[in-house]
Hints:
By secondary structure, the protein is mainly beta. The protein has one helix spanning 2-22; strands spanning 27-32, 39-47, 53-60, 71-72, 82-83, 88-95, 102-109, 116-123, 129-135, 142-149. The protein has one domain: Lipocalin. A hairpin with a 5-residue loop joins β2 and β3. It comes from Acinetobacter kookii. This is DUF2147 domain-containing protein. Keywords: Signal.
Amino acid sequence: MNTKIMLSLLLLLTCPFIHAKALDLVGTWKAIDDKTGYARADVLITKKENGGYLGTIIQVHAIPNRTAIDHCEKCKGALKNAPLIGLPILSGFRQNPKKTDEFIDGQVLDPLSGHVYQGKGRLNTRGNVLTLRGFIGASLLGRTVSWIRVD
């Protein structure tokens, strides 16, 4: 009987740690095109020493009946004509201390337009879908995309 109680207590105590791991952005994500529904790229998100997240394209997927792009032709500055593979498209995001499923204060680069947007994101309860919102000024004026966790 004591073994069952101890096992139940152990499970209850470890559940928050399992859940906390799921609410981390680190890993590989499939970026889904919001207009076509096709996967556009795989993005590797890492956590920097300062606690911020960095997302870099590691693979590009061709969309049927569309011209494939492999460089950021419309990017500005040092990223102008940079190869998409290795291109940092997500930066500065940090976990919201009040809502652990939200990530705030980030920037998102759209390699198709070359624009950099303010960004925020939210993980679903299973931690396998990241909903990103890129915007200029107020978040009402923006665009939302979903990324699916690969690993």
